[in-house]
Amino acid sequence: MTKHMIEAGKPASKLKSEALAVLLERGLVHQCTDIEALDNTLSQGPITAYAGFDATAASLHVGHLMPLMTMRWLQKLGHRPIIVLGGGTSQVGDPSFRKDARPMLEERQIAANIASIRRSVERLVDMEGADGALLVDNAKWLNEFRFLEFLRDYGSQFTVNRMMTFDSVKSRLEAQMPLTVLEFCYMMLQAVDFLELSKRHECRLQVGGSDQWGNIVNGVELGRRDGRKLHGLTVPLLTTASGSKMGKTAAGAVWLHPEHLSPFGFWQFWRNTADADVGKFLRLFTELPIKEVERLSELQGAELNEAKKILATQVTTIVHGPEEALGALRQGDALFAGEGDILEPTHKLPLSRLAEGLGLLELVVALGFAGSNGEARRLVEGGAVRLNNHIVDDARRRIGTGDLGANERLSLSVGKRRKALVEFD
């Protein structure tokens, strides 16, 4: 299987399909099973493509925006997206590049997670009309297989020798961490997903994160054995200019669902983007014309802050809708001018975190206001941190239930421009 590595923002020459040209220009292509063949397929007319997401949490996070934006662009350019919410595969858990197994979820919890995730997905792709996006649960076919039937029909199509060559497997084994047979079979399940979608909906392209490369290749090869010409494409692993994984904090991911992170908290995350990342994020996460992206990327100083506001508002519009984005912009303008207070929670944490002993430094990092405990310590000791509007300069300070006000909330700010209202439930 040929693997093409693509430099973000550098389109291949002589492309025939507008869709692939746009994805390359936006920096949304990292690997492709055969880029010339995919270009030819896309140029011949509308196709159906899919991206899959396991329901291991009640919300997707910003790391999922890369494949979702890819599906959004494909739909805008005439192709039909399928979003697979993995009610079946979530019962196993993808082991790709993990050091340990995912917690096992009950079917009831998976169903609740899928229902919650739908709300975010339905904002990002158009579900209306005969050619609208499809939301599919792979439990529809995976739950129907009998064990021996599955091994006979599909287990015979894979070799352990081949599966052991994929980086997602090798990384676990090289770390000398156990890999269960259940987890090892995950890549077979995802390959079967692609084949089933090809049979049921004539799906010809799978889009996924770079950690999904081995799983995607297996699906393409399984389809080829069935006489189907399928394609695989991965988006880049997104890192910031500092080299850290984008969107991760000590509290976990930056969620897309408003019940896990408020629209203003989401807006504020993007408004606090590092200067060096503004241009890349405008290209990846907005639908602004490339010329406008390039203009904004060249701004410096105070003008670059305006570009950050545009970035934050554009992404929030896509994820939460124009009304929520406008409200977040207005509140952001007031807060950054020192003229207002946050009225709605920007972050939510479980009340159990207080019982476990939540340190002030840990909270500052969890909210994304510092990149490490060391940086948080310097901010606290420098008098830049306020807890419930009072300066706290003790880096050993612990947060307790006594710090909570009405509705189990507390406020925390760093300087004049970074403010959060945290709700514990």
UniProtKB/TrEMBL annotation:
Reaction catalyzed: tRNA(Tyr) + L-tyrosine + ATP = L-tyrosyl-tRNA(Tyr) + AMP + diphosphate + H(+)
Positions of short motif 'KMSKS' region: 245-249
Enzyme class: ligase
Summary of the function given for this chain in its UniProt record: Catalyzes the attachment of tyrosine to tRNA(Tyr) in a two-step reaction: tyrosine is first activated by ATP to form Tyr-AMP and then transferred to the acceptor end of tRNA(Tyr).
EC number(s) reported in the record: 6.1.1.1
Main location: cytoplasm
Pfam families: S4, tRNA-synt_1b
Gene: tyrS
UniProt domain Plant heme peroxidase family profile: residue ranges: 127-228
Keywords: Aminoacyl-tRNA synthetase, ATP-binding, Cytoplasm, Ligase, Nucleotide-binding, Protein biosynthesis, RNA-binding
Residues reported to bind L-tyrosine: Y50, Y186, Q190
Lineage: Bacteria, Pseudomonadati, Pseudomonadota, Alphaproteobacteria, Hyphomicrobiales
Family (UniProt): Belongs to the class-I aminoacyl-tRNA synthetase family. TyrS type 1 subfamily.
Gene3D superfamilies in UniProt: HUPs, RNA-binding S4 domain, Tyrosyl-Transfer RNA Synthetase
Binding site for ATP: K248
GO molecular function: tyrosine-tRNA ligase activity
InterPro entries, A to Z: aa-tRNA-synth_Ic, Haem_peroxidase, Rossmann-like_a/b/a_fold, S4_RNA-bd, S4_RNA-bd_sf, Tyr-tRNA-ligase, Tyr-tRNA-ligase_bac-type, Tyr-tRNA-ligase_bac_1
Quaternary assembly: Homodimer.
CDD domains: S4, TyrRS_core
Subcellular location: Cytoplasm
Name the record gives this protein: Tyrosine--tRNA ligase
Motif 'HIGH' region positions after renumbering to this chain: 55-64
